[in-house]
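FAQ: What does the model actually see?

It sees only this:
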Amino acid sequence: MAIFGSLASKLQETFDKLKGKGKLSESDINTSMREIRLALLEADVNFKVVKDFVASVKARSLGAEVLESLTPGQQVVKIVNEELISLLGSTESKIEIASKPPTVIMLCGLQGAGKTTTVGKLGNYFKTQGRRPLLVACDLQRPAAIKQLQIVGDGVKIPVFAKTTESTPLEVAKESLEHAKANGNDIVILDTAGRLHVDEALMNELNDIKEAVNPHEILLVVDAMTGQDAVNVAESFHETLSITGLIMTKLDGDARGGAALSVKAVTGCPIKFVGMGEKSDALEVFHPDRMASRILGMGDMLTLIEKAQSVYDEKKAKELEERIMKSEFTLEDFYEQMQSMKKMGSLQDLMGMLPGMGVNKALKNMEIDENLMRQTEAIIQSMTPEERRNSAIINGSRKKRIANGSGTSVQDINKLLKQFDQAKKLMKQFGNMGKKKGKFSFPGLK
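And it is asked to produce this:
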């Protein structure tokens, strides 16, 4: 299910009723506000936050800009959008970068929130920005925590500073700064210990590290799936450590999203990043305006464009364009395009970023089967280089061999080759005429 899927659907239903009316009465607005209030509460948004939000939207909706408007329904949507953006933090909250390196970022949180994995993702984010991060193993409490961080570091090719468990977290944090200065690391990310719940020993340890290294950012990692518990945890950590922001993990798995909508209003701390999957690059900068747009079914084209740009290779794109013009599009090209799409995220997430698709009933009835994409990959990987370059040579015996190698059937091979031929024809049409429309079913969409 899409992020905020249930909330988005219910808000859209409310707005659809409003848009069908030429004029809005106070009674119409009161009815809509009750529906919005119920939708937010069902999405596990904090009760006080809901109360204040609805009161603000209602006060503005009863003004002349709505009641005297020729498009009152659209005006209410505009107000809700603006209030949602404000609720989520108004603007992107950027990481404070030190004028004199290294910038020290301390990550804290309870066990199970995905802190160590997030340390790696955050390091990878800075690495793609051209910086030289260092990950620091300050969690000496949990067995194998150091080893886990080293594995994470190896996965993103970022160095890890670690000491034996005979050292104290405080000593490790202090020594890591000297190590960073000596080795040219301009970002230091501290992976601190967590607990199953907030306790005095944990807070004292974290506070000692804070006092010793004076971090530029103290980011709390919270699991969006825990709902209002995440907000309560944020309040406790902020009270002791004065955190500068939050990283909300597993937001892609939370269809309700109540924690994301509540935490800024309750704690005053902005969400700076959100975890949107398990891969090392599945950490996104949090943009309140873009998230509000997704909640209201308006899509998130800016993020979609950024994802596309991140995997775009101008040279390869030019070569592909030339091959399409010459009718030389092959299964190898087909496979490469699939890999580029995969790097952007799941098909379901990408579709949810298109305007109207996040709450579109047609999308809900569309089967987006990631397994079909994997099956297509397996089939192409089971082909010889020659077969990928020239699909015309794939005869009956070759199909049987490919089917055995990919764990599929000859019928699956035939279906893929038919889809590929359709794609080839479509691309040729676009290349030659640009205006003709073709029909093509991409593997993974039915």
